[in-house]
Each structure stands twice: as C-alpha cells, then as structure tokens.
Amino acid sequence: MKWSAIPYIAVRALRRNTMRTALTTLGIVIGVGAVITMVGLGQGAGAEIREQVNRLGQNVVLIFPGERSLGGVSIGGGSANTLTVEDAIALRDEIPEVVAASPEVRSQTLVVYGNRNWATRVYGQSHDYLQIRQWPMESGEMFTEEDVGQRALVAVVGQTIVEELFEGSDPIGETVRIRGVPLTIIGVLERKGMSLMGSVQDDIVIVPYSTAFQRISGRSHAMVINVQVYDERSMDMAREKMTDLLRERHRLAPDQPNDFTIQTQEEVAQAATETSRVMTFLLASIAAVSLFVGGIGIMNVMLVSVTERTQEVGLRLSVGARGPDVLLQFLMEAVVLCVLGGLGGILIGLVATEVIATYAGWPALFSVEAMLVAVTVSAAVGVFFGFYPAWKASRLDPIEALRRE
After folding, report:
1. pLDDT tens digits, 32-66
2. What is the distance between the alpha carbons of residues 217 and 249, in angstroms, rounded to a whole number?
3. I want to staple 299 with a disulfide (CB 3.0 to 4.6 A). Which of 9, 257, 356, 385 is the partner?
4. Residue 70: φ, ψ to 5°
5. CA 66 to chain CA mean position, Å
6. Residue spans of beta strands (DSSP E) within 114-150
7. What is the helix, strand, coil percentage profile of the chain, to 5?
8. Residue 253 — φ and ψ, nearest 5°?
9. What is the pTM of this model?
C-alpha cells in the first residue's frame, strides 16, 4: 500500500457514516471551542488591564503608607499614617529623577448643586496630578500651585459629575458644595473610562490637597503619593533614592522595616493581572477536560469501527498489506477526526468569543498561537486515543479476520 494513499482511504472510510463521524468529533469541537473562548477572553482581559495601567500615566510610581503585599492580603497598607505632604515635596525637590509628585487624600461624600446631589469621590491632589496621570482637560483649567498654597476653594470635575449634576451643560464658574464647603468649578476633565478596580474614573472631583486636608477630609496624612519619574531607565535608581530619602525622613533605624511601600507601574500591572491569569488557566483547564472526554469517544468509535471492518482488514492483509499499513490507516482516521474537530472548535470558539465580548461587554483578544496549539493538541489526541484501536487492527490474523462475519 502506498503511504500517500492512506489519507485518501481514511477520509473515504469516514465518509461512509457521516452522521457518526460528526457526532464523534463533537466532543473535540466543544473542547477546543471552550479553550479558544476562555483563552481569548482571558487574553483580552489581560490586554485591557495593561491598557488601564498605561492610563495611569507614563513612568508612574505609587507610594503607600504602611506595609503591603503583592497578589495577597494587604497588611497595614494604606491604614498607617506615615506619609506627609512634606514627603511628597521632598521627593519632588530632592530627587533629580522625579519630575512631579502629588500627595493624595480621598473622601467619599455628597456633592450638592442647587436641589441636586451626587455621591462621589473627592480627591485632594497637587497641581501636578493631571500631568502625572496624563489626563487632559476638556474645558477650563487645572488649579495652580498658588491655589494649593492659598487653600483655594476651587475644583476640577469629571464627566460623570457634569452629567449627574449639570445634565451635560457647561459647569465652569458654577459653585457646588461639599460638606458645606462652597467650591467653584474651574475645569472639566476629558472622559477616562473604567479603572483597574472596575470603578468609573470620571466620577470624581479634584480639589487642592490643602483644601481637602483642612476643609473636607479631616485627615492630616496622605493616603498615597503619586510620583512621575523622568523615564523608564531611571525607574530603579529613582526607587532606591526614594526609599533612602523616605527612610531618612521617617528616621528609621537600619534594622527597622520600611513604613511605606513603593510600587511601580509594572508591579501594579502584575498584581492586577495575576487573578485574571489564574482564572484563565483554571477555566481553560476545565474546558480541556472536554478534549479528554472527546478523545475517549473517538477511541470507543474506532474500536467499534475495527470490529465492523474486520473482514476488510483481513482482505487487505491477505492481498499484501502489512501490519504497519493497517495501523497507519486507522491511526490516520483518528487523526483526521480530531483535526476536523479542532478546526470546527476554532470556528465555534471564535464565534462564541465574539458573541460574549459583544453582549457582555468583555474584552477579547484572538490568538493565532492558541489556534495552532488547539489544532496540534487535537491531532495529538487523535494519535493518543487512536493508537490502541489501530494497533489492535494491525494485529488481526488475516485468516481469522476473513472467517468472521
């Protein structure tokens, strides 16, 4: 038997019972489709997280009070009062690699305008905050360093505030009240979208940190310090200098641990994507079980096929076919079944991913590598689960096979 004829013979044998062939490949189709869908949604979520991290700004470092742990439970992070406005100013003025620094204090409170009110986040920041976040203004202007020094009663608002309190009209020059404090709106931010934690970034009011400390939050220490470094190459050096400066300012002994935590954008991205990566792996692993179940189905059908075609095998062996030829023929049938299932699974996976991404609003990212791996794995499943039936067929005795009815 010519080996080049074996694929043709395998396809012809499968076409004898089209319905059984289709049902046999169904398990592979479902398995591959589920894996493609899970991987596509997982990679899309990872890409979205990276994009949102980039929206934090370029070369941003976040400094938190207390200790924190990446990818796990936070231990005291954000709850200690160890960071001050003076720390932020020292970082900006004494470290050459630092371009800008903004101490941050947050409050969740009502903003009132006329007979309307809206619960939102009020951020106390420096005038450098929008530069650090690379957040452009839609109209108006950001408050100045002089406004910070004078504890000016001014505010910059996000798009959600404009929609909820002003019904989309221009709020520049209008006065809102926060905890009884009148604040004049001097600027409106461009729309930013969702944050890493799923909150709406546009639902925000930004005021000078001096005003927030004294009139709104009641706090005396910063909840975080936002820092922008000159460039990515300076990140490690800047981090070392920031650590040394803060330890010196906080008068920590050499054997004392830091009472602050410094996180770069890369670390924030790793922490944010870790859960997504683990969930994608778990879901893809569960979906891969369908491939195993489909492989068992293929082995079962191939064993039945060997039994049904015993006389055919005996006839081939009696006219000169060798055992390896028969083995390769049945093995090729199993591989063709799995490859067809893999291709069908890719199609189903792409459609399912697109539907879920469209109607659920989840990001998705198609991966050519994942598709190639899916087809390769499908072929491997065919070889693994088809080998025993093919080996059994190749071991048949020609005379006994021809006698069997």
Report:
1. 888 888 888 777 777 777 676 666 667 889 999 98
2. 25
3. 385
4. -75, 135
5. 28
6. 116-125, 137-140
7. 55, 20, 25
8. -70, 160
9. 0.62
